[in-house]
Amino acid sequence: MSWNSIRGHEALVAAFREVVARGRLGHAYLFVGPSGIGKKTFAVELAKALLCEGTALAPSTPGGRGPTQAATSSSARGESDGACGVCPACVQVEARTHPDFQLVGLADDRHEFPIEEMQKLIAHLALKPARGRHRVAIVDDAESLSTEAANCFLKTLEEPPPDSLLILVATGAERLLPTIRSRCQIIRFAPLPASVLAELILAEGIAEHAEAARRLAEASEGSLDQARWLARPEVEQLQRQVDDLLRSRPVDCVVLGQTLSRFCEEGVKESAVKRERARVALGLLADLLRRRLSIAVGQEAVPPMSGRMPAGEVESLVDALDRVLVAEQQIDRWLQVPLVLEACAADVARSLE
Ligand SMILES: [Zn+2]
Predict the structure, then answer these.
(1) 338 alpha carbon to ligand 1 midpoint, in Å?
(2) Interval 197-205 mean pLDDT
(3) pTM of this structure
(4) In principle, which of 51, 296, 304, 346 could form an S-S bond with 313, CB 3.0–4.6 Å?
(5) 207 part of a folded domain
(6) Could you tell me where the DSSP H helices lie in the chain?
(7) CATH label of the domain that carries residue 329
(8) Distance 49 CA to ligand 1 centre (A)
């Protein structure tokens, strides 16, 4: 891995290369953007650029206090090429075993980041670097910090230990306490362009051929996570079932609610996984409604199987889409998954009456 391996965020790579080379790196960043677009990968690459030992060009000190002396003299990378990817430090960051690197995130069975984890992270950051000159900590899923954990982190954000770099990664800045946001430089990541996403889908073997990858990329809203989900057989099946339900009038709200709930709940214990599946199910419902809307406003040729669009369909579909967006927000606010889905199904069906 090196900066060259980051796909779809070339402008940010160029900006951070420049900032690191000039010694202008800040102490605390908040990376925000949809899930599955490479924010965490980018943060790890930035950590490597700072901790890499395979370079003659000194990585600069966080805080913009100017460049420092080179860590080692051997050069395995180009002058501004970020991490070498092969030195012991790079390998250890990749394996999450580097003593000056920490990456914490939300466990699958939790919905809040516990304060104890944060206290451990802060204590670790306060130590002198063990082998290099920097310490780097990445807090993934930062929107899940409990208020207690966030408040505990504030002082560290305000007065970070010397030579430390803190990177918070979140899907939306607005989900963090304003006091946390205001102490970080916010870096916004855009969804991956469809062409880049299609290449990644092929490279990961998620789709078998270029045309399937292109179609999947177009439905995945710039997110590799979303593409992985959509390629699952059970999601394809859900898509067919929901599509059939939306075509029939009146829409059977009970069956629609049950179909969505079953997908999220059946055989799933962890509430975080149920929520992730609920986001996929609602995303898929919104996508199908958008497709029908697109047909209704005449942007697409009417496929022979779509059936005739009833009058007033555009307004009905817009209402239904609004209702799905509300349900997505409710899932993020930890309302009960089946209640949210069943109420949403009832309102979508009513909108389409
Ligand atoms: Zn290296």
Answers:
(1) 48
(2) 94
(3) 0.79
(4) 296
(5) no
(6) 10-22, 39-51, 88-94, 115-126, 147-158, 178-181, 194-203, 210-219, 224-230, 233-247, 253-265, 271-296, 313-332, 337-351
(7) 1.20.120
(8) 7
